[in-house]
Amino acid sequence: MRPWSERVAAAAFAGLVAVGASAQDSSPAPAAVDDTATAPAGPVKWELRVDASEPLRAMLLRYLDVARFQRDAGTESITRAELARLVAATPAQARTLIETEGYFEPEVKAVLEDGSPPVVRIEVQTGPQATVRRLRLEVQGELAQRAEDGEAGARSLLDRVQAEWALPVGAPFRQPDWNTAKGGTLAALRADAYPLATWSGTVAQVDAAQSSVNIFAVADSGPRVLFGDLQIEGLSRYRENTIRNLSPISPGQPYSEKALLDFQERIAKAGLFDSVSVAVEPTLEQADAAPVQVRVRELPKQQATVGVGVSADTGPRLTFEHLHRRPFDLNWQAKSKLELGRDKQGVEFDFTSHPKPGFYRNLASFSATREEASALVVTSQKARLGRTQDTERIERLYYLEWQRAVGRSADLVDRSMALTANYEWVWRNLDSNLLPTRGVSLSAKVGAGRSFMVSGDLDTGSGWFSIGSGRITGYYPLGSWYGQARLEAGQVFARSDVSVPITLLFRAGGENSVRGYNYQSLGPTVDGAQVGGRVMATTSLELARPFSKKSPAWLGAVFVDAGNAAEDWDGMKLALGYGVGARWRSPVGPLALDLAYGHETRKFRLHFSVGITF
Questions:
Q1: Which is nearest to 475 in space by CA: 594, 602, 585?
Q2: C-alpha distance from residue 12 to each of 24, 79, 96, 291 (Å)
Q3: If residue 118 lies in a helix (H) or strand (E), which one and from where to where?
Q4: Do the bridges between strand 535-548 and strand 551-566 make them parallel or antiparallel, or are there none, so unpaired?
Q5: What is the DSSP string of 459-489?
Q6: Rounded Cα distance, 390 and 245, in Å
Q7: Where do the H-state alpha helices sit in 115-236?
Q8: Residue 475 pLDDT level (bands cut at 50, 70, 90)
């Protein structure tokens, strides 16, 4: 057994450190190199050939000096004598690099062969790769003492550190894996209550003759660190409570890197700050109450934007938006929006409070819209008063809503109003909310209230009703494919003679519904107009795969959709749509372009969308 001393692998592999001691160089000396005394003194170019297994060959071609000088623009200045010296130094340099992959007795030959151009030939015989024969990983300090005293959290952390060690017995011993194992252990300790953790010592003892390594590693957890008070910097327009109400951290709570990141994300999502930093700089002296330092830079009070867009469902549009982050010095945000589109026009006014305790916000809104789809023109006005709560995985919205809707077609006019109490809920368990590939999202909406029939051609009147709808979307990787499935359903519960505003009825078709059909074109028809149904169901299955490994953000997709809306479940007849599409996983969300065929209409339709609908 020989210790493998830490060293740096020449300039060719800067920063790569190995622990333990190198075997003595038993390789034969490099083959004879041309006599440099008689070699031409001028610059020379050469061809490089490396005979080794592919992973090692790629590493040597990247880091050896003889390869690096060949790539550099200054190659023209290398003389034959200098090239000969590079070749002579290559075996020792290559062995140092190869040892980082766990081969401790490699044989390396390097020769310079005459030719035009001359050829540098490198031959590598690695021998067996060393594996971990014995592992001893210990954690000392306060964490160990707490675990010994029976504290469940400490015991769980110790077990996790042991289980997640990245270089177990039997694994090949590679320098990158050795570094990863050590870094991962410290990262786990530092992320969960022990940010001052350090290594007391790490040793990798190499037995080159047996191609094995014994690992001994001892970590010192240091003291358990508790959060102290918040220290907030950078506020001038907004109150400290705006930030304090978003904090998942309380004084005396054990340090958690995840809690800091969650806090930082919540502040950023508040829409009030241009930059946010939440950090703790623990010291031994402040371990019992480490201050949480929050540094922010505020956004301007007001912001105006103009947007131009197009939708496969509602056509081109022009939007004007204005946001005031503290109107009349109130702790509210006021947002107004004007939309002018081919099929949809509208104006919205939203008022949302700055964050309240428990991650709540109060809200009030008013909107008026005109939308045309499938031979029906709907004008509506809505007023809403409620409260919202956003947590890490769940969004909740409670509100009272008044709305008035008028539906018009060539032979139909329907006017009605409704007052409802509503609850909306969204739950996500996804690997990414922006670009999900694995997980599930659920959304649901329930409401109840009374409708008031103003006038119309439909044979209905005022009365009580309720409504419920839900959607579940699942994402799952299937080898090199990405699978996605969606199921959505909804129903209005009311007597057949009770009027329900058209805006609360269901219609299907279009993007995020049933592709291959026009937007909101599926549902009950009255005098040629799609007036909406009291029940709805849609489903979708999709498979996507990158076009190439070099461009994983670009994918091709195949899909099939089905669904419809009807007056009741007995009258439901599913419409089928299927097709192909292209996807781009952009930094702002997925962009989708689909060519879908409507099985019922026997027509193709182009759809495109940006983002995820929950």
A1: 585
A2: 21, 20, 10, 43
A3: none
A4: antiparallel
A5: S-B-EEEEEEEEEEEEEEEETTEEEEEEEEE
A6: 12
A7: 142-148, 152-163, 175-191
A8: very high
pLDDT digits (tens, 9 = 90+) for 393-444: 899 999 999 999 998 887 778 888 999 999 999 999 999 888 899 999 999 9
| Cross-strand partners of 425 | 396, 444
Q: Which two tokens stand for residue 41?
A: 């003194």
Architecture of domain 227-298: Roll (3.10)
Tokens of 423: 């609850």
Please state, in angstroms and rounded to a whole number, the distance separating the CA atoms of residues 299 and 302. 8
Q: Which two tokens stand for residue 421?
A: 């109490």
Res. 41: pLDDT tops 70: no
Of 29-38, 176-185, 218-227, 260-269, which gets the smallest average pLDDT? 29-38
- Can you state the angle between helices 257-269 and 175-191, rounded to 10 degrees? 70
Q: How far is CA 403 from CA 137, 318, 452, 511, 531, in A?
A: 66, 25, 10, 26, 17
pLDDT digits (tens, 9 = 90+) for 574-589: 999 999 999 999 888 8
The DSSP code for 44 is -
Architecture of domain 393-610: Beta Barrel (2.40)
Where along the chain do its domains lie?
A: 2-125, 131-220, 227-298, 393-610
Between 152-163 and 175-191, two packed helices, what is the crossing angle to 10 degrees? 170
User: Of 508, 611, 605, which Cα lies nearest the Cα of 566?
Assistant: 508
Is beta strand 603-610 parallel, antiparallel or unpaired with respect to 198-207?
unpaired
Q: What angle do CA 190, 195, 199 make, to 5 degrees?
A: 70
231: amino acid identity, one letter: Q
3-state SS, residue 182: helix
Domains 227-298 and 393-610 fall in the same CATH topology: no
Determine whether domain 131-220 maps to CATH 3.40.50.1820. no
What is the spatial distance between Cα 283 and Cα 292, in angstroms, rounded to a whole number? Answer: 12
Is residue 166 helix, strand or coil? coil
Q: Give CA angle at 409 (408, 412), nearest 5°.
A: 75
Task: Concatenate the DSSP letters of all residues of 520-571 into one string.
Answer: T-BS-EETTEE--BSEEEEEEEEEEEEEETTEEEEEEEEEEEEEEEESSGGG
Coil, strand or helix: which one is 363?
Answer: strand
The residue ranges of DSSP E strands in 190-235, in sequence order, are 198-207, 212-220, 227-233
Residue whose tokens read 């419809």? 564
pLDDT bin (cut points 50, 70, 90) of residue 74 is low
